[in-house]
Specification:
This protein has 453 residues and is α+β, with helices and mostly antiparallel strands. It contains six helices and 15 strands. It starts with a strand and ends with a helix.
């Protein structure tokens, strides 16, 4: 290819056969164009090949050159790619593998997190179920305890139920007089049922904003339930303590009465009346796993059994008053001036002030051994209580029992009168041990101590 312009149009054209020959520039003559030259204005690019000329313009030439250059660059890039193809593929594969591993790790992490969350939820659910089951079992036990407490009668009379707010206490127009005759065992409603389980209405709560708040809300409910059950249990234990203290105090007083009177406990127990009862002997056993409530309740039951036995025993001891109303003696036991002879004499009983026709009651269980006129006693009733104990009731206006009849505590045996050696209506009351008169006030004072507290 030969570049040629009008400036060099004076140069001779090369012939293909002129290779190797020296090129000689021809001078121009006079500046006139030669016949074979072309005008200078015809600029361009000419390609000579095999005697043929191909002429290009500047734009076309540079397009061809640019195309050839781009092809060369493309070829170089392609060659470079194929030369380093293995490294590129290796890096791409490594990158892809790294991304896949990272993705799998992320999935594994999320799966582990889900598993942990699920496990935590299952654990929380198990803990909740376990706590709820414990609370339900505890509530059932407390309800059973409340039922057991409700079955205990007030056999001591020392525990008084508190007055309800707004309810006035029962009052009479006059001060009531103490009852002269009262059974030792008084079965009344159990005092102060604070040990009963309180009714618990379900707590209405608004929907929690989150799972954490929900869990905390459930925990708070369980805590409140446990606190409520703790309060119920503490009140039950307090009630048991009160019962046990009362029973122990009552037992001490009952034993003290028998001791102070100088009576034989074994003989009294042997002579104590027993109702129709029986059944196989089943020893009482306390479970080794019993709690504080069960052990204390066991001791209370043992104390109740002992107290019932002593109550039967003391039913034969005449420590109660034979008349109704305030105790007022017109004459005591011992030496006094005889009202008829005016000389010192032994008074073998107590004279109770009373009105004509007032009822006279038996002071202990026993059998009537005398019922009729008895000299200075006038109309008299004598009751044998066993173990050498007996009582006499003199100066009666009426007798309501017969010889051989069994009477109970508080049963009316006659009416106050003034028969025999008497200066007016009153009751002559005697207490005898093995036929010898003893001071009845000794027995009455023992009854007062027994009824105290």
């Amino acid at each position: 290819m030969t570049y040629r312009s009008g400036q060099y149009s004076g140069y001779p054209q090369h012939h293909p056969h002129d290779h190797g020959r020296s090129f000689v520039r021809r001078p121009s003559s006079g500046g006139a164009p030669s016949p074979g030259s072309k005008p200078r204005s015809e600029n361009g690019y000419t390609i000579l090949h095999a005697g043929k000329q191909v002429r290009f313009g500047p734009v076309a030439f540079w397009i061809v050159v640019g195309t050839i250059t781009l092809l060369g660059l493309w070829s170089a890039a392609t060659a470079t790619y194929f030369a380093f193809r293995d490294d590129v593929l290796t890096r791409l594969i490594a990158r892809q593998t790294e991304m896949q591993n990272a993705y799998e790790d992320r999935i594994a992490e999320l799966r582990a997190k889900v598993d942990r969350t699920t496990s935590r939820q299952l654990l929380d659910q198990e803990q909740f179920d376990r706590k709820l089951d414990q609370i339900m079992r505890r509530q059932t036990a407390l309800e059973a305890r409340a039922t057991a407490l409700g079955a205990i009668p007030d056999i001591t009379g020392s525990i008084k139920p508190p007055a309800r707010a707004g309810v006035p206490a029962e009052t009479g127009t006059a001060t009531p007089k103490p009852s002269p005759i009262s059974d030792t065992v008084i079965f009344v409603a159990p005092p102060d049922r604070e040990a009963r389980l309180e009714s618990r209405a379900p707590v209405a709560a608004s929907p929690p904003p989150s799972q954490l708040a929900k869990v905390q809300g459930v925990d708070n409910v369980l805590v409140r339930l446990e606190q409520s059950l703790d309060g119920v249990e503490s009140r039950q234990m307090a009630a048991l303590d009160t019962y046990q203290d009362s029973i122990e105090s009552r037992l001490r007083r009952m034993r003290g009465v028998i001791t102070d009177l100088g009576l034989n406990m074994a003989q009294l127990e042997a002579a104590a009346p027993r109702g129709a009862m029986g059944g196989p002997f089943v020893p009482v056993k306390l479970s080794p796993n019993a709690g504080a409530f069960e052990r204390q309740f066991y001791r209370i039951n043992i104390g109740r059994a002992q107290m019932e036995r002593l109550t039967r025993t003391l039913s034969l001891v005449p420590y109660r008053k034979p008349v109704i109303g305030e105790v007022e003696f017109t004459s005591g036991f011992g030496v006094r001036v005889d009202p008829f002879l005016g000389r010192p004499a032994m008074h073998t009983g107590l004279d109770f002030r009373a009105q004509m026709g007032d009822p006279v009651r038996a002071t202990a269980n026993g059998k009537v051994v005398s019922a009729g006129w008895a000299g200075g006693y006038g109309r008299m009733v004598e009751i044998d209580h066993g173990n050498g104990l007996s009582t006499r009731y003199g100066h009666l206006s009426e007798i309501n029992v017969k010889v051989g009849q069994y009477v109970k505590i508080g049963e009316v045996i006659g009416e106050v009168g003034s028969t025999g050696r008497s200066t007016g209506p009153h009751l002559h009351y005697e207490t005898r041990i093995d036929g010898e008169a003893v001071d009845p006030q000794k027995f009455l004072r023992a009854g007062v101590r027994l009824a105290a507290g």
